[in-house]
Amino acid sequence: MYNPDAIAQWIYEKYPHFFESVTNNTDIEVPLSTVMPSVTPVCFGTMYTGTQPEVHGIQKYEKPVITIDTFFDALIRAGKKPALITYSRSSLSRIYLERDMDYYQFETGDIEDVNAKTMQVILEDKHDVIVIYNGNYDKIMHKQGPESPEALAEIRLNSHIFAVICRLVEEHWKNHNTLVGFAMDHGCHEIDDNCGSHGLDMDEDINIVHLYKGFARREE
Questions:
Q1: Domains of the chain and CATH, by start
Q2: Does the reported pTM lie above 0.90?
């Protein structure tokens, strides 16, 4: 599961050419609305618990460890081995701690280490589920706006990274039935001084799209 931060449905629809590496590698497109407030820890709290914010306990921008049952707990109970690959101070790196799973967290806050570890973990084929977080678009969007050339370049990068993940999964996980997903947490909108933001109950912030593809096991 590849989680790029803050890519809105309106961005996806307005700039389809930046997502070609995603759409060329997925079969299913699912439009969704996020929970409120549309900020990262709240939305990821719902994404991996399936519950409303008042149930999982994160109702504003804060990063406590979620204590209710989660997607990761269900995997562990089923004997599966999940891994979470993130920056060390990101929301995903904090809110799902204290589980018997593998955590790879990088201090730099850059995507290079996260993505390099992702490729390594896929090639090692020791995990059943891998969740990857890239916050590069969100970081640039806040400073230079959702449609700035710099921010859109980060979307293209996310798209290419996802394509590489798909190719590695298809080739090196061919002994498994596998699902890959490109799944953002919330959207964004432009504010004063050409900056970007999110967190409001508005279409730009809450409407997103998740994309998926299944790879069938191939017998040798």
A1: 2-215 (3.40.720.10)
A2: yes
